[in-house]
Amino acid sequence: MSWINRVRNAIPFISKKDTTPDNLWHKCGSCGQMIFAKEWQDNLSVCPKCDHHGRIGPKARFDQIFDPGSCKILPTPTVKEDPLKFRDGKKYTDRIKAARSSTGEQDALINACGAVEKAPLVVGVQDFAYMGGSMGMGVGAAFIQGVEEAIKRKCPYVIFTAAGGARMQEGILSLMQMPRATVAIQRLHAAGLPYIVVLTDPTTGGVTASYAMLGDIQIAEPKALIGFAGQRVIENTIREKLPEGFQRAEYLLEHGMIDMVVHRSEMRATLAKVIAYLCPAKAAA
Fold first, then answer.
1. What is the pTM of this model?
2. Which of 181, 197, 186, 171 is nearest to 145 (CA)?
3. Using CA atoms, how far apart are residues 283 and 210, in angstroms rounded to an integer?
4. d(CA 153, CA 142)
5. Angle at 175 between CA 208 and CA 111, to 5 degrees
6. Which residues on neighbouring strands pair with residue 115, listed in sequence order?
7. 109-116 β-sheet, strand order
8. β-strands 157-163, 195-203 pairing
9. Do residues 36 and 27 touch, judged by C-beta distance below 8 A?
10. Beta-carbon neighbour count of residue 166 at 10 Å?
11. Measured between alpha carbons, how far is 228 from 213 in angstroms, rounded to an integer?
């Protein structure tokens, strides 16, 4: 044992190295700044140096949006797992088990009902940590569940998208969730209820090609990557260099594809204001 360790162990108010938590710091994925974990959480997982919006899961999102004590998480719909008996590097069932173990969620889309500034709403959140937020039968069933719950409660449905696209392990069954979601949105409109989309980083592939771009109001978080195909694929197809900031939220706002870019700290107030405009009677109640 070195003399440094002997001195450290002899002084009672210096914590031993093996008892020091290894999660005291968070490294920003954009600028690389080391941020104290408590500061990162208090700042809504946004870097205080470069304003990079980190990816967050359903629980953190619900805590940020809903009025305290109003959130009720809806049970995840049950669907047939591994309908195609798919296997690549490993079994699809093993990938599902690993995703559930790491996230604590049954699938990539979780719904909850509650209120924001006393206005009722149903919120769906895609978790990118669950197999890249990919859209499979479970996500499709959860999306329809969220819409049906909003119709039942006569309130808006708000979805926070974050996905790499359709889930390849479910083949055509994953692509069928695109028209299913579109029909569900039509039912929501037929009931006279708004559908609000919040695009977070990243929202790509089949999700962008369906329910992520069908909102009555399209909101995005700053610098969120939003698109269908990747930049390299597009450049190889059109044989041209894409402009700076292509497929980022600010570029889409400038070109009219979304309605607003909203900082995470202002998201709750913005949603409350939008709902008050779209559902004035409910906001007054």
1. 0.90
2. 181
3. 29
4. 16
5. 65
6. 120
7. 72-73, 109-116, 119-126, 157-163, 195-203, 217-220, 260-261
8. parallel
9. no
10. 25
11. 11
Per-residue pLDDT of the chain (285 residues; tens, 9 = 90+): 566 666 566 666 555 555 555 679 999 999 999 999 999 999 999 999 999 999 999 999 999 999 999 999 999 999 999 999 999 989 999 999 999 999 999 999 999 999 999 999 999 999 999 999 999 999 999 999 999 999 999 999 999 999 999 999 999 999 999 999 999 999 999 999 999 999 999 999 999 999 999 999 999 999 999 999 988 999 999 999 999 999 999 999 999 999 999 999 999 999 999 999 999 765 555
With b meaning 16 or more CB within 10 Å and e meaning fewer, what string describes 233-270?
A: eeeeeeeeeeeeeebbbebbbeeeebbebbebeebbeb
User: Alpha-carbon distance 21 to 85, whole Å?
Assistant: 41
